Amino acid sequence: MSAERNVEELIAEAAAAPVDGWGFAWLAGRATEERPPWGYAKLVAERMARADAALDVDTGGGEVLAEVPYPPKVLVATEAWPPNVEVARRTLRRVGATVVAVAPDSALPFRDGSFDLVVSRHPVRTDWAQTARVLRPGGTYLSQQIGPGTMRELSEAILGPLPPPDGRHPEAAVAAAQDAGLRVVDMRRATLRAVFHDVGAVVWFLRKVVWTVPGFTVDRYRPELLALHRRITTEGPFVAHAQRFLIEATCPTS
C-alpha cells in the first residue's frame, strides 16, 4: 500500500467517524492529552454531594455529570448544540438530570437564586451576570475553562502563523466574575501536552473541537493535512499544548 493511499484512508476514516457528545474515546491509541492536575470531575462530584440544586452549563453529551456518584435532589443541565441534546438526555438518565435545550448566548431560563451550585466544563462563553443571577446567596460556581492559545501549534500547522491570542485569559475571567458580584476563591492554570500519532486523529479532533481551526473541512485543508501527515511520518508524533484554567467563585450571602 502506498503512503498516499494510507493517508487517504486515515483521512476518510476520521472524516466519517461520529463526533456527537463530548467524549474522546475515538482517539484511543491515536492521540493523548494530559489531564489537569486538579481533577475537575472529582471536584464536581464532591460539590454535587453537598448540593440541593445544581446546574451544569454547556453539558456537551453529559459525560462529566453522568459520573457524579451522589447527585443532588434537583439536577439540571443546559446544552446549545442540537446533536448533543439527545445524547445528553440519554446519558444523564442514570443521575436523574433534566436537560434543557437553549439557544447559543441566550439567558439562562431559570429563576433568580435557583441553584446553590453551577458547574461548567469548557463553556463556549461564560455569562457571568446570568451565572450570578441564578446562584443562591452562598452558592458556588466551579468551571474548568480553555485558556488562551490552546492547541496553537495545531492551529498554526493548518492555518499558518497567527497573531497573539486575545481571548479567554484567566485574568479576564476573574475580573468578569468580580464585576458580576461574585467572589473568586480559587484560580489554577495548567499547560497540557497533547500528542497526535496520525493525521486521522488530527482530522477527527478538528471536526470535534471546531474553534481550533474555524470552518475546518477536509477538502478545504487537504494540502495542509497531507503536509502534516508527511511531517508525522518523518519526524514522529505531532505535539501541541492545551491551556486550561480552573475558576471557583461564590455568591456573597449579603
TrEMBL record:
<dbReference type="Pfam" id="PF08241">
    <property type="entry name" value="Methyltransf_11"/>
</dbReference>
<dbReference type="GO" id="GO:0008757">
    <property type="term" value="F:S-adenosylmethionine-dependent methyltransferase activity"/>
</dbReference>
<keyword id="KW-0489">Methyltransferase</keyword>
<protein>
    <submittedName>
        <fullName>Methyltransferase type 11</fullName>
    </submittedName>
</protein>
<dbReference type="InterPro" id="IPR052939">
    <property type="entry name" value="23S_rRNA_MeTrnsfrase_RlmA"/>
</dbReference>
<keyword id="KW-0808">Transferase</keyword>
<dbReference type="InterPro" id="IPR013216">
    <property type="entry name" value="Methyltransf_11"/>
</dbReference>
<feature type="domain" description="Methyltransferase type 11">
    <location>
        <begin position="55"/>
        <end position="141"/>
    </location>
</feature>
<dbReference type="InterPro" id="IPR029063">
    <property type="entry name" value="SAM-dependent_MTases_sf"/>
</dbReference>
<dbReference type="GO" id="GO:0032259">
    <property type="term" value="P:methylation"/>
</dbReference>
